[in-house]
Amino acid sequence: MARKANTGSADAANPGRLKQIALTYQMTRKADPKVGLVVAGVGIGVLGVLLAIGFLIGHPVYLGILGFVLGLLAAAIVFGRRAERAAFGQMEGQPGAAAAVLQNVGRGWTTTPAVAMNRSQDVVHRAVGRAGIVLVAEGNPNRVKTLLAAEKKRMNRVVIDVPVHDIIVGDGEGQVPLKKIRTTMLKMPRVLTGPQVTAANDRLRAMGDLMSNMPLPKGPMPKGMRMPRGGKMR
């Protein structure tokens, strides 16, 4: 009975995965029409090279099987990268796009979207991990610097022994493009232990956030979203 239950759950999960892959492909193809040809070309190319080597050394079956497996792997890697690039292209320029990226940085990071915001929709998000506290700002470069400075001053009241990094999203000098936020954060040196990260998160939660009482949609925020009247600005 247990085996049948496990088999049933696996069968139910597979259609879900296949549907997700199909949806991802459709969305990627809208931004990258050649994705199908490129992915197929990579897979067939890897298979062809290994199969040719197999014929040369007298083991076409073994090398053919290996080429098939490696071809699928190479095609999956290329598809993943192009899908990620297409997703970043669709999100770029939308308010709150950085929050969506931060939610997928990886394990060990705790993200709090929109810890500071002004009426112009310039916004600062916060992520806490082994590298310390990372404040990611998106919006007008001059205005977000003011937001970042105010947020750092506010945090210094409760966390003084944790390194703080700031990132301004953009393509200008000293800024980090949306697609490179994750890579930039993962390259930061890990200087905190697990308990120190937990303690920093607890202190910051106790401090409260600007948007803690405002329901926020997941992913990019709607363009028409505005700060409520009477709301305090940071």
What's a quick, concise take on this entry?
It comes from Streptomyces litmocidini. The protein is an alpha+beta fold and 234 residues long.
Q: Main sheet: which strands, in order across?
A: 1-2-3-4
Oligomer: single chain
Following the backbone from N to C, one meets helices and strands in this order, namely HHHHEEEHEHH
- The portion of residues forming beta strands comes to 5-15%
Number of helices: 7
Unreliably modeled segments? 7-12, 213-218, 225-234
Please count the beta strands (DSSP E, at least 2 residues each).
4
Percent of residues in helical segments?
40-55%
Q: Report the radius of gyration as a whole number of Å.
A: 23 Å
* Gross morphology: elongated
Distance between the termini: 59 Å
Q: Major β-sheet, in short?
A: 4 strands, mixed
Keywords: Membrane, Transmembrane, Transmembrane helix
Organism: Streptomyces litmocidini
Protein name: DUF4191 domain-containing protein
Pfam family, one: DUF4191
